[in-house]
Design goal:
Layout: H1 13-24, E1 41-42, H2 43-53, H3 58-70, E2 81-82, H4 96-99, H5 101-104, H6 125-135, H7 137-143, H8 145-163, E3 173-174, H9 177-180, H10 189-193, H11 219-234, E4 246-247, H12 249-268, H13 274-291, E5 292-293, E6 298-299, E7 302-303, H14 328-339, E8 372-373, H15 374-386, H16 390-406, E9 412-413, E10 420-421, H17 427-437
Antiparallel strand pairs: 1-2, 3-4, 4-7, 5-6, 8-9, 9-10
Helix pairs in contact: 1-17, 2-3, 2-6, 2-17, 3-6, 6-7, 6-8, 6-12, 8-12, 12-13, 15-16, 16-17
Bound molecules: (2R)-2-(alpha-D-glucopyranosyloxy)-3-hydroxypropanoic acid (9WN).
Length: 438
């Protein structure tokens, strides 16, 4: 925790190794999260990757986001996976022949020329686009980067705000655990329990070719993921009917942060950002009204189909700390909770866990049920810094840098030991570590 990294030292092995990971995962127009486990383009991965790439090549960072947005659907959704046609179908499940985007998604305006999934991931993109622009405004203006992507980002937010307000309270819902990005978080256990799993023999999990079974979701989880995705596809990817609908604090906080970023982008393009900032504030009020729990001092997920807050403490409930305009008493409570026994920010863990250390479902190795992830740490670091918690932010930054390097840029780590889990040479780990080096 006390290791000092010198950002001016570009020859540092850390910088070079992170750059090498991003170089070897670059496909020419975008970056795969990992060569073996995730051989296509993922939506929120690309946003985090662009945030790091901007320090190596602002052009590549712009291209990363442009490539993703080229696969946007007519209704505004940005798909969670854009498939690489040169990768064999059996390299990743579910593959394009499962999603059938260009046929099943026709009514929702799926692109014809590229195959995608039909669900989404957290909207980190406008925030990433703004940070990428700021890294080299001259290049960005010269290429018309923001002018070209602004309408796409605006349509993306419109989709989330209008088609995904399934709870009717002004927040966006996710309709599949893969959409929120923390796939097997215990927060989903209750809403998922209502979903009849697809039989295990009806699909083949390619992830187990690359990852240890104890680090990955279970077959039962997969059965439910498959059922939800199949039903969504078979309904033509129309929103509002599915069995699973959850309002998640991190997903909505990222939407708010991105809406503020979109306001800044609008100003840069000569328009006014006032309406967007106001919308972000309305969303912030809805987030507080619907997901904040004053007793437990953090945000919780709301099960829209089941009616109430889901009483599991996931790291997603701390991520709204990212928002600069949260009331002081809320940020103070979030910091207290992060430092307390459930997350142990600067105490017994080496990196903040994805789930409650005291929770019944806590498992230090199984994916989003306990392990520490680098993107959530990056978001919390930003939140702590934004709210003047400099020492805590510095400590978290050092932990990220130290563990990213010692774990070989692992996908996630055991929060107590820092041991690598999942795959290594994982792109967003390298990208976000690089960002914190600068
Ligand atoms: C399903 C790519 C993605 C991340 C998610 C992470 C994992 C996929 C999977 O990998 O999800 O989308 O196959 O498990 O949970 O956050 O975007 O890195």
């Amino acid at each position: 925790r006390t290791i000092a990294y010198d950002p001016a030292d570009r020859s540092s092995s850390m910088h070079t190794r992170a750059a090498r990971v991003l170089e070897s995962n670059w496909t020419g127009a975008s970056t795969v999260p990992s060569r073996g486990l995730y051989p296509h383009q993922w939506s929120w991965d690309s946003a985090f990757i662009a945030i790091g790439l901007r320090h190596l090549s602002p052009l590549r960072a712009q291209t990363e986001l442009e490539t993703l947005l080229t696969a946007q659907w007519g209704d505004g959704r940005v798909p969670h996976i854009v498939f690489n046609p040169s990768v064999p179908l059996d390299a990743y499940f579910p593959s394009p022949d499962f999603w059938r985007s260009s046929t099943a998604g026709r009514a929702a305006g799926a692109p014809r020329t590229v195959q995608t999934s039909g669900i989404v991931q957290p909207p980190v993109h406008a925030l990433a686009a703004w940070l990428v622009h700021r890294a080299d405004p001259g290049l960005s203006r010269g290429r018309g980067f923001l002018a070209r992507i602004y309408p796409r980002l605006a349509a993306w937010h419109r989709y989330l705000l209008h088609r995904r307000d399934l709870g009717g309270g002004g927040l966006a819902s996710v309709v599949h655990p893969w959409e929120q990005g923390m796939d097997n978080s215990p927060c989903w256990d209750a809403p998922l329990a209502r979903v009849l799993p697809a039989p295990a023999r009806s699909f083949r999990r390619a992830d187990l070719d690359h990852g240890a079974p104890e680090d990955r979701p279970t077959d039962l989880d997969y059965g439910r993921y498959v059922r939800l995705a199949t039903d969504y596809r078979d309904a033509g990817y129309a929103d509002g009917k599915g069995a699973f609908a959850v309002e998640d604090p991190a997903f909505n906080a990222l939407l708010i942060a991105s809406e503020h970023a979109l306001a800044r982008i609008a100003c840069e393009l000569g328009a006014t950002g006032t309406a967007r900032h106001a919308r972000a504030e309305r969303l912030t009020t809805a987030l507080l009204d619907r997901l904040w729990d004053p007793e437990r001092g953090m945000f919780f997920c709301r099960d829209v189909r089941g009616g109430g807050l889901i009483p599991e403490r996931g790291v997603s409930g701390l991520i709204p700390l990212l928002l600069p305009t949260l009331p002081r008493e809320i940020t103070a409570a979030l910091v207290r909770t992060a430092r307390g026994p459930h997350f142990s920010l600067d105490d017994t863990t080496r990196l903040v866990p994805s789930y409650d250390l005291l929770g019944e479902a806590f498992d230090p190795q199984r994916y989003w049920r306990g392990p520490a992830w680098f993107n959530t740490a990056w978001l919390l670091e930003r939140g702590l810094r934004t709210h003047g918690e400099r020492d805590l932010a510095d400590g978290l930054r050092s932990s990220v840098l130290e563990l990213a390097e010692s774990s070989g840029f692992a996908e996630y780590v055991d929060p107590y030991t820092g041991a690598a889990c999942g795959t290594t040479d994982f792109s967003w780990t390298a990208a976000l570590a690089l960002d914190l080096l600068h």
